[in-house]
Every structure is written in C-alpha cells, then in structure tokens.
Amino acid sequence: MTDGSPRSTVAPHGRSRRHDPFRWIIENPGTVDLIGFGAGALLVLVFSVGTGSFGWWTLFTVPMIAAGALCRVRPLLGVIVIGTLAVSHMLATLPVVAGDVMTFYAMFCAVAYGGRAVGWIGVGAGFLGVLAQAGFWSLLAYFTPYGGVLQSAATFAGLLLVGSITVVAIWALANLQRARVRQLALIRDRAEQAVREREQRTALAVADERARIAREMHDVVAHSLSVIIAQADGGRFVASQQPEKAVDVLGTIGETGRAALADMRSLLGVLRHEDETSFGPQPGPAMLEDLADRVRAAGLEVDLDLDGDLEDLSQALGMSVFRLVQESLTNVLKHAGAGASAAVRIHRTAANLEIEILDDGQGTDPASDGQGHGLTGMHERMSVFGGTLQAGPLPGRGYRVRAVVPLDGTLRGGETVGSRTVPARLDGPPGHPADPAGPVTRSAAPDPDPSHPGGDPR
Fold it and tell me: How many CB atoms lie within 10 A of CB 334?
C-alpha cells in the first residue's frame, strides 16, 4: 500500500536534509572550498615559517592556493587570479613554485563548471603556461656550460609534449565531470517532476474518493428523508383524527432528521459537489460476516472478531468500517502472497471504535508499482469522522492496518462531528456545509520497521 499523503513523507525528508552533512557539502561548494583551500593556504604559511623556508615562493604559493576557493563558484575569476600569479612568479625569476599545481585545478574547474567560452579560456591559459615553461627551461638548457641548440630543442619538445598531454588529459576529465554534473541536474529535475506527478495522482485519488463517498451518501440520506416525508404526510391525518399520537409522529421526524443531519455533515463536510448518484443497499457491520465468507471462498483464511455492540453506529460510519475492512482484505489477497491468513478485530468502547486488520504474509510486495490509492481512500473515509489511520509492514513478516474513530460525534442522532459541536441547521446550499469535519491524523506505520521504511506500496 502507498499513502499518497504528502504529510507523511515530506516532513521526514525535510528533517533528514537538514541533518545530512554530505548533502550540505554538495549543496554549498563555495563554503566548502573556502574552508578547505583557506586551511591549506594557512598550513603552507605555517609550515614555511616554522621550518625557516619562508621566501618568495611562499608569497606566491599561499595566495594561489587560497584562490582555489573561487574556481568552482567563479571559474573565470579563478583562472584570471591564478594565471596572473603564475605569470608574476615567472617574471620574478621563479620558474616553478608549489602553487603551480593550482593552474591545473583552475583549468579543470573552468571546463567542468564554467560556460563554453570560459572552458576554452582555461584550456588556452593552460597551453600558454606549457609554452612559457618549455621556453624558459629550453633557454636555460641552451645557456648552461654543457648545453647547446640540440639540448635546448630537446628540452623544449619534451616539455611541450608532456605539458600538452597533461592539458588534454585534464580537459578530458573535466568534460567527464561536466557531463556528470549535467546528468545529476537532469536526475534531480526528473525526481522533482516525479514528486509533482505523485502529488497530482494523490489529489486525483482524493477527489475520486470524495466523489465515491458522495455517491454512497445518497443512499444513506435517502432513507432518512423518505421516513421524514412519510411521517409528515401521515402526521397531517393523525393530527386531525388522533391528536395525542401527533407527538409521537413529530418525535420520530425530529429524531430521523437529526440523524440525517449528522450523517450529512460528516460525509459531505469535505466535499464540494455531487455529480453522480448510485442506488442499492448499503453495507455495514452486519454484512462483515458475509464479507469474510466471500474472502474465505476466494482462498484466504479470515478470523473475524467483533467485540462490542455495532448496531447503533450511524449508517455512514458503519459503511466506512465495512469499506475499510473490505479494502484491507482485498489488499491481503493481492499482496500478502500464497499461504497467508488474515485476522479482523473490531473493538467497541464507550469512547472509541478500534478496527485492526492483520495478516501474516510477506509484508511488502516487490511486484507492486507503488501507485495504488487504497490507503488514500482509507484515510479519506476516516478523516470525515475525525479518526486516525495507521498502516505499514510489521517487523519480520505481515502487515497491519489500524484505525481508531472517536464515537462522541458519530452515533446516530448526535449533533457533533469530530470534536466540534455543529449547529442544527445548514447555513450553506446543499453540498456545501458550513462546518466540515476535522482533518485526519496520519501515520506512516504502526510499528516502524527499518527494513521497510515506506510501507508496502499497495
């Protein structure tokens, strides 16, 4: 089963994102690089001072390492700063310093995280650096006591070849990283689109379930209205012939009207309109035995235990209890696997009605696509009575569905819905009650099992 409610999934993800250090590192590259490269520059400075090797190389190396914090978030600026420092130390007759390794990192970031133009600027700067180093060392080889034209040319060609291969290799790795970044962005966009589509499917499922409740409401209220009309028509005759019995007729009309009003408020409180009607006898707790027999005939062993008097429940609540049990047993048949059995427990107390359906099947169904709307319908049915619904796999094996409905506002003839007292008349037009029922409290699973974090996608 899947619970389409965003309330049961979004909040835990929000909490995990706030406390996930790896996600924070990924989503804050500028801050991470500032801390990392700043610490590296500070260590180099402390090392050079502590070992007595402080010199011109330190004055160029420390800012080059610190400038690495710019490369991922401002690739072009990073190339300019590090390239300028590299040229400066060569002009200061320091051909190589430790910070020169940052030139390769700047080129990598320019290709991987910058635009196309920034990437080519980085590659061009890399080749210029190779040419500058090759030229410097070839001239140095020419003017050495044992050097000459041949030694100078060999040095230039060798350094140019090695440097070019290095630049091309960094360019290729940067392009792989660029493709990976784009792929991750595409996956993130698809995941966000999937979340939006799931929310839309959930909204459609809720709308369909509300429409189905509205259709069933027709039969619940139709009986009460028929009784009222018949009593009112007969009351005119009784009032003229036997006035003493008119009080009984009026009492029946009032009692039936109050019961119909309570049912109407509880079932239509969350609906906007009714576009269809259907006719037929309404199921209730009295038909649970027949339901269990039909499920047993389908091959599932069912143990039904009814504790307490269920006959004086309102028609609306009785029908919702029946539908809850029916949907749960249907899911057991579909997803629990071969050889499973189910147990239905309904316990009535003075304050609450508890419904629990347990099975000893496989708990989760790997063949399910996770797009069912069974739990969505159960949540919607319980919400109109101010009830709670919990559903999820049990540790080891099995699945449990448990609902608790307060009875202070659901008994026939009452005028309260959920935990609120409603007036004895409707202030709005039919189908638009002024005081809808309170919301349902949702929970992802009764006994959370770490091996099944999301419940069975039924």
Answer: 15
